[in-house]
Amino acid sequence: MVSETSFSSYNRSPTPKFCNSFTTRIFSDVAGDVTIVVDGDSFLLHKFPLVSRSGKIRKMVADAKDSNISKLELLNLPGGPQTFELAMKFCYGMNFEITCANVARLRCAAEYLEMTESYREENLIERTEIYLNEVVVQSLEKSVEVLSTCEMLPPIAEEVGIPSRCVEAIAMNACKEQLVSGLSRLECDSESTELRSGCLEWWVEDLSVLRIDFYQRVICAMGRMGVRPDSIVGSLVHYAQASLKGIGKCQIWNPARTRPTSGLVENDQKAIVETLVSLMPTEKSSSIPMNFLFGMLRMAIMVDATIACKLELERRIALRLEVVLLDDLLIPSVQTGDSLFDVDTVHRILVNFLQRIEEEENEDCGYESECLGSPSHGSMLKVGQLIDAYLAEIAPDPYLSLQKFIATIEILPDYARVIDDGLYRAIDIYLKAHSMLTDNECKKLCKFIDCQKLSQEACNHAAQNDRLPVQMAVRVLYFEQLRLKDALSGSSGDGFLSQRISSGVPSAAMSPRDNYASLRRENRELKLEVSRMRVRLSELEKEQTFMKQGMIDKAGNGKTFLTSLSKGIGRIGIFSGPAGGKRHKNGRKSRGADGKTGRSRRHSVS
């Protein structure tokens, strides 16, 4: 048994001196008989306690030609001299604590030294295995801590299965926490977003300390065991923010300033970006924050990630492009001599978005759909406004070529824009910043503006804009005259048509499917309006007849009883046929005899 005095002296002394002092204090009458060198550090020890527990040292001593060998060297011992010290303490029977920080190194060193049960019961391998099974794998935090210590260990750690056991333990404990916290999740759903995020993925910070290859294994295991996709997304976001520079920031940074100076660091960040993208959940129900996707895309461009990685990010962004903010699209270009913004990336995102819209329209019901304005059409209108604002932002760039600017304009269909004011503003800014354009180039650019879709304010500005071609100004004035003419004649025109025009949604702003459904509905409403006009016309004719007869009666002596009587007979004559006394009498007799017949006859004539 070792006293506390000798133990504290051991801790204070350097390694070689410690061994001399250590053996002298415990075995004062027995000198050390073997020196073991580990990574340049020498340990003066005794053969007997070592060979009784370590099969490797026993074999080295037995294989030595000189029976009086006094020096041995251990090469590539896992954990180095510090771990060897702990192993020797175990051989000498000294008490020490096995912790999460040293258990992986001790387990690997015990495997290297062959400290199995064949040489002594409850040897170091058995003791470390008990700690791993009864303490480490039962806790998510301890499993993460032990797994992080395996990063610096040689492949022998994989041979004894420490990383794989820790990975499975982390995933299993995460699933248990997910089940236990189900009630807490329901309670947090009614609370604020901050509280809800705080009561859910509490373990995401622990995983951020892992190396990317271990982290990948943990996330894959979580996916297999059924951890929620939103929990995995939260972990991915936190890991990226902890491991990458600039992630989660929307502002534009200088690529030259933030590009890693070390090639090793850049390769590490490239591996992190590509791995995190591959780990993103594929479930449609998982909502990945857009600022995280754009941050990952910017980092992928900066570190020159694989094409597949960048295309996957662009595809995911295109799935929800209608909710993207303008600042997200302002991706800086890292290529020298190119435009300030990465227009090609935005163009590819738009291509993916249009493919998505086409697929959604093919999945929906055909042209017989009665809904006005499908969800895909609404998304198209939002993206049209977003791209017009994006064009206005990149237009002042002096290095932006006309071809890229036009390609970004013409990729969207005509019905993506309700009005062309935003497009006109972007083109005007581009013309102002690129005054060296030829007349043909100006005409080629301005042909994308639909003068019929310009507001009154935009038309007034365009009519006085010297930067526009003359033909453009003439078209603006022509359509302005047509609009003024329609406005003046609108009071006597079709009320339904004027109402449709004033709604601010011209047919050019609709997709072909929605436009067809709208035309069918308008046709039905027009037919109904015509029927109503016919009924109204018939009523007006009746009223006009009564008014004429009243004017004739007022011209005579309408104050007498006979005049009043003749007036009543005259009204009957309007519905009975030509005026005649005999005929009037017959008519009155007919109504007196059978009132129903008279009413039905009158109704049939009218």
UniProtKB/TrEMBL annotation:
Entry keyword set: Coiled coil, Ubl conjugation pathway
Gene3D superfamilies: Potassium Channel Kv1.1, Chain A (3.30.710.10)
Biased composition regions of type Basic residues, renumbered to the chain: 581-590
Domain BTB, residue spans: 32-100
PROSITE patterns: BTB (PS50097), NPH3 (PS51649)
Signal peptide segment: none
Region (Disordered): 574-606
This protein's pathway: Protein modification; protein ubiquitination
All residue ranges annotated as the NPH3 domain in the record: 201-483
Matches recorded under InterPro entries: BTB/POZ_dom, NPH3/RPT2-like, NPH3_dom, SKP1/BTB/POZ_sf
Pfam families given in the database record: BTB, NPH3
Coiled coil regions in record: 516-543
Family: Belongs to the NPH3 family.
Protein name as it appears in the record: Phototropic-responsive NPH3 family protein
The organism's taxonomic lineage, starting at the top: Eukaryota, Viridiplantae, Streptophyta, Embryophyta, Tracheophyta
